[in-house]
């Protein structure tokens, strides 16, 4: 971006010189009083030596942009030589040569021809051949040409504004540190207060901001600032009232296995805890473990390689020594507990493995999932029993993490995307969530607990939770204000830093004013993305609507009026190009006129500018889910049934359904819901456990199928989980699929089905969280049931038939 545009007139001696800065401003204009054709009445007359001296002062250290630079270089060299100055080694770029690489096969690459071919304008005027060959005029159009080349180069880069939302703190987005600087200091101050508390009491911060005000972005900044020193645990909203703590722990475990460099957060926690025990206790490490322990003390790249190396006997013995050391410390400071020592053993096991398959099995064990006998034997951990209470188990494990963090650094526990909890159908979830947070404050030490909330949702929580909860979570309150326009400009420029262009070079003042007029930050970024696509790829700007919903008659008339206005604008552009092509037959490219006229007739361009933001979200998020599908994830029945309930509650707004459950005495059934859609009862269950627990529960499910022959039963299991190999379990599956085929089915949830389930759930939650600007829930759901490309058979459960293609 450190460039100037220069044009020289003269042959062979410099007679006229103009310089334009990188913002398009003429910063220098001079004429030589030594040139015979220059009238002494002209302003800015200077000696040739003065012109060249001032030229050097301005261009020092900058790239010089010229059109047909070879000519300008020759003029400058001759002139420097004439006045006895040494011509320095200057860096030039030639728009003539660049244009030949970007627009191949043109009749000419003169500034005149290119300016007309590309419809360039300077000072809002098209190129006039009669005014050419003056330094200032040519420099202004050379600047416009270079801008066009820079924009053309952007076609091969990703839209820097396209990612306007931070989904998790572990993502990496450009960050302008001056925005919310004071608010960020409050977060770090709270963390330091936890660290300095001699009783290791956890503290709470509520971060309050309007939708799109970058609450999660601020959490990302905290992650970038504190990882790998602290463990940062990110929890999205719970969706099952009966499994709040288990949901929280499952998301914590997903965060712990997140990599920070070459190690996971869990590995840092165990390694740092062990090092602290050794150092504080002045423990004399046995000789056979010393090299391994030294590698732990210095986590340089080479030492990490040694830790992640072959699974030798020494390495296995060393990790067992680490487990014993941590266990001894635990027993001397805390009671054994029901699960604590087993969990510590599992955590150390996870750290000891380098093979992804072993780590994946251990992660599922840490999540409290029952493994197959083969898997449990493979990793050397005892299988969980039927008596394990998920909620009690989860609270104890989170407590273990907090106590281990005393040997490390305070935990950062972030609750985000909580807005849907304020919906009336989620009242039970909200109440249980409040109690769960209260339990965490009571039993989990050494943690900074952060809740991100909208202002109205925070007000609602204060009327629902009792004072003991409110007092704990709001020891600090951080309010995120709307950033100033100068801050938003800085944020946009940081987004552009991966390119070679500035905001002012990319956007006109009018366009920039429009962008900065959008509030909050996310809205400004989305508008920037639209303008970027328009400038770089020629995609028409979308017509903004106040609220996205099915238009009424008046709105349809207004929409048609906007379409006609757009057609009129395109027609005028086509007509102007036709007139110019008649006046200057060889200067205007008319190859795209036919396509533009076709677009007006068939409406393709109109459809583009009226593109539904819901479809845009579905398209983009589907791609994201496909990319993350193979990542490690904690798959639980309670979470999946919670997703299905959320979806059912949402569709209830456009087609009433009733949600119930079946009972079979005291027998354990798979997690399920019964959906009564007025036509038929659908019983949808999930069974993603293993061993005898799978066998007994699917057997009970089959009994239900026989008891309710008029209901349709479907039992799902994620295909990424281990295959059921037990003889009885396989027989129950066969029975469900064959003997009960008229009303029962066992379905492996494949990639397509999983992505759709998560996609529709995430769409609903995103609307509740106002991540989609001005989109109503009913409108978004109507897209799913009316657009064939977004319809999925799961929607038939709620009584919606596939739309005709």
Model description:
The protein is of the alpha/beta class. It has six domains: 154 residues, Ribonuclease H-like superfamily/Ribonuclease H (Nucleotidyltransferase, domain 5); 66 residues, no CATH class; 134 residues, Rossmann fold (3-Layer(aba) Sandwich); 148 residues, no CATH class; 63 residues; 182 residues, 3-Layer(aba) Sandwich (Trna Endonuclease, Chain: A, domain 1). 51% of the residues lie in helices and 11% in strands. The strands form five sheets. The chain has a six-stranded mixed beta sheet with strand order 4-3-2-1-5-6. A five-stranded parallel beta sheet has the order 10-13-14-9-15, sandwiched between helices. Helix 14 packs across helix 15, helix 22 packs antiparallel against helix 23 and helix 24 runs antiparallel to helix 25. The longest helix is centred in the C-terminal third of the chain and has 31 residues. The two termini are 50 Å apart.
What's the architecture of the largest domain in CATH terms?
3-Layer(aba) Sandwich
Number of separate domains? 6
Low-confidence stretches: 546-551, 594-610
Which geometry do the CA atoms define? globular
What is the level 1 CATH name of the largest domain? Answer: Alpha Beta
Question: What's the pLDDT, averaged over the residues?
Answer: 88
- Which class do the helix and strand fractions yield? alpha/beta
Strand-residue proportion: 5-15%
Number of strands: 20
Radius of gyration: 33 Å
Q: Termini separation (Å)?
A: 50 Å
* Sheet with the most strands, sense and barrel status: 6 strands, mixed
Question: DSSP helix count?
Answer: 32
Percent helix: 40-55%
Classify the fold: give the CATH topology of the largest domain: Trna Endonuclease, Chain: A, domain 1
Spatial strand arrangement across the major sheet: 4-3-2-1-5-6
